[in-house]
Amino acid sequence: MTKPDPNFIWAIADLLRGPYRPKEYGTVILPFTVLARFESVLAPTKDAIRAAAEKYETSPKLVRHEMLKRASGEEFYNTSQFTLSSLGDPANLAANLLNLVEGYNQEVREIFERFDMPKIIRDLDDRDRLAEVVKRFAALDVHPDRVSNAEMGDVFEELIRRFMEASKDVAGDYFTPREVVRLMASLLFAPDTEDLSDPHLIRQVYDPTCGTGGMLSEAHHWMKKHNGQATLNLFGQEFNSLSHAMAKADLIIRRQDSSNIYFGDTLLEDGHKGKTFSYCLSNPPFGQDWKTQEKAVKAERDRDGEEGRFAAGVPNVGDGAMLFLQHLVSKMRPREQGGGRGAIVLNGSPLFTGGAGSGPSEIRRYLLENDLVEAIIGLPTSMFYNTPIATYIWVLDNNKPADRQHKVQLIDATAMWVPMRKSIGDKRRMLSSDNIKTIVSTYADFEDADPKISRVFRTEEFGYRTVTVEQPLRQIFAVDDDRIKAALEITAIKKLPKETRATLREALGSLDRGVTWTHSDQFAQSLSAALKSHEVRLTPANRRAIVGAFAESSPEGSLVTDGKGQPLPDSSLRDNENVPLVEDIETYIKREVLPWAPEAWVDHSKTKIGYEIPFTRAFYVYEPPRLMIEIDADVQDAIARVQALFAEVKA
User: Fold this and answer.
1) b/e map of 254-270 (b: 16 or more CB within 10 Å)?
2) Which of 195, 227, 429, 629 could lock 417 by a disulfide, CB 3.0 to 4.6 Å apart?
3) Measured over all CA atoms, what is the biggest interatomic distance in the chain, rounded to whole angstroms?
4) pLDDT of 74-91, one tens digit each?
């Protein structure tokens, strides 16, 4: 097969210079490329379709539709008399081209409606560019016999990249680098025990953020490349009109049901509600907030609770990645039906953001305690078009094989990359075929893999308990202007009559400022004497409040206890410790806390469970600092070289 040159196709944009700005080129090039592809597919059966259209003109709509599909040999057809190379009278070029587009069946017409094809044709005609553009695309041969679906996918990817680059848009929002998708497909399919060579087997692949359908088409291509004979039905959802149209077009070419690509915002509405899938893939937006969807998402969570898509709760509104992660899990085929697998690309935030009890931590807790995470692969930086940040592939499975149950494999593939010949946006690196093979084989080797790049942990090893460590409160009491002011600002005191407050100020000012009381009873006695001498009467509650205003935490003070004689905690000395779930709390406190704070205790009522996945720490290798003798030798060597240079100058 011969892959068409994207440069040749994009060169047609030269015809648009002047009337069109560069950011508008793609709005013409992409739909015409799709039109050329559809026409190339139908070219061999054009006459048969026309004959069937005439023969079944008066037949019931459904019968006619099925007979026309049979005539075309595809899942679509075109009944127009025109083709790109024969559009009749030049004076009626626009009308005839529109007739050609409208000659397609309903599914294909919907695609061109997403492209806004009537407007594109009208604008080209008004700007006197229609004839030349049609002529160029009529000469483009992209029949599947000469250009495979995978090759056509590469062409579309390149054209979309150029369109986004020209329009200064975010290319990463529209497609994922093809080699990353290939890795995800390999991780998803390779370990599956089901025999995908069975022609009677029916499986589904779903992408809730499918963009132009690249992940779906690559999954389909992977199975065919590996001699898979099973029927693989493709499903997706996309809310960008351009991307949605491209994805539907790709499915039609693959003889798939294009209605499986739902148009809409996945977070606002699950377009495939009630359906689950054998395999799920996704590359949701990195670090994008979900303020627009917040009200609907929280309402759905409140309504459906643990039975809904967002079973574990919701993350911070600043990043919706973990909403997509939960959604993907909810769409995996249930374990009792054979289980489902998933692969999703995320940035580093879902690994560790949020402390114990927070939304992100609770989501991680849900995934890990339900044994849904099988592996996480750290990718090289600068792999994506719109961001150079570190990214990770999460491999999900709700029906793990016995040897992987309650375990998570971390694979460090950050050093597995080759440089690109030419950078594209932020993408400067790519995965080679050998890199992908190494990652997949490392994943397959599991606990036998090279420990330098693969570590296996029990799920509970990612868990911890945040415990509150208290120390007893000891207080001293002293008098100064700031404390007197604080006492008079107590709410209950401010409600006293003005004259009483003035007298109280005098009474407090009479207290000895050179004395430090180490016990509350001592200070209370001195306060009582001052109040009595100034004839100030206060309720017991107000007296206690004033005593508290002159208190200061100090190890030199006396122990403060409650009514039962138990020590009260000092909030200024309060601390939190993260104790691993796999370790006893008291043992940890005895080792890590009590040697430095022997009176400390744990307030178990405040303990929270959290989960984090410290990916980088898992592969950290300690490198001891150089010996001082080595450093000194290097310094002396440098000094000697400098002295030698000075000597040469003087000579």
Assistant:
1) bebebebbbbeebbeeb
2) 429
3) 117
4) 989 999 999 999 998 889
Structural contact between residues 323 and 315, judged by C-beta atoms closer than 8 angstroms: yes
Q: Are 440 and 222 in contact (CB under 8 A)?
A: no
What lies within 8 Å, CB to CB, of 465 at 6+ separation is 356, 578, 579, 581, 585, 607, 608, 609, 610
Which tokens hold the place of 240?
Answer: 């960008």
- C-alpha angle 217-223-227 in degrees, rounded to nearest 5: 140
- Confidence band (pLDDT; 50, 70, 90) for 227? confident
**Res 1: pLDDT:** 45
Question: Which residue carries 């009176």 as its tokens?
Answer: 599
Instruction: With beta carbons less than 8 A apart as the criterion, state whether 299 and 234 touch.
Output: no
Nearest to 73 by CA among 54, 35, 46, 107: 46
Token reading at 299 = 């309402």
Calculate the alpha carbon distances from 183 to 178, 285, 431, 455 in Å: 9, 19, 9, 19
The long-range contacts involving 581-587, CB below 8 angstroms and separated by at least 24 positions, are: 581/460, 581/461, 581/463, 581/464, 581/465, 581/609, 582/458, 582/460, 582/461, 582/463, 585/465, 585/467
Residues in Cβ contact with 496 at an 8 Å cutoff, skipping those fewer than 6 apart? 504
Dihedral class, residue 421 (left if φ above 0, else alpha if ψ from -120 to 50, else beta): alpha
- Tens-digit pLDDT profile for residues 116-157: 999 999 999 999 999 999 999 998 888 878 887 767 777 776
Res 293 pLDDT > 80? yes
Say which amino acid occupies 426. Answer: D
Q: Which range among 359-363, 510-514, 634-638 has the greatest average pLDDT? A: 359-363
Look at residues 409, 408, 427 and name the one whose alpha carbon lies nearest to residue 419.
Answer: 427
Measured CA to CA, the distance from residue 490 to residue 494 in angstroms comes to: 6
Q: CB neighbours of 356 closer than 8 A, spacing ≥ 6?
A: 464, 465, 466, 578, 608, 609, 610
Question: What gap in Å lies between CA 282 and CA 322, rounded to an integer?
Answer: 12
And the tokens for 520?
């509350």
Residues 6+ apart with CB under 8 A from 42: 49, 72, 74, 76, 77, 78
Q: What pTM was computed for the model?
A: 0.85
Angstrom distance (rounded) from CA 369 to CA 202: 31
In this structure, of 52-56, 108-112, 266-270, 387-391, the range with the lowest mean pLDDT score is 387-391
Q: Rounded CA gap, 393 and 373, in Å?
A: 11
pLDDT band at 385 (very low <50, low <70, confident <90, very high): confident
d(CA 181, CA 430): 12
Mean pLDDT across the chain, nearest whole number?
Answer: 90
User: What is the separation of C-alpha 183 from the centre of its chain, rounded to a whole number of angstroms?
Assistant: 17
pLDDT at 68 (0 to 100): 94
Summarised one tens digit per residue, pLDDT across range 390-404 is 999 999 999 999 999
First to last CA, the chain: 74
Q: Counting beta carbons within 10 angstroms of the beta carbon of residue 35, is it exposed (0 to 12), middle (13 to 18) or buried (19 or more)?
A: buried
Q: What angle do CA 190, 286, 461 make, to 5 degrees?
A: 60
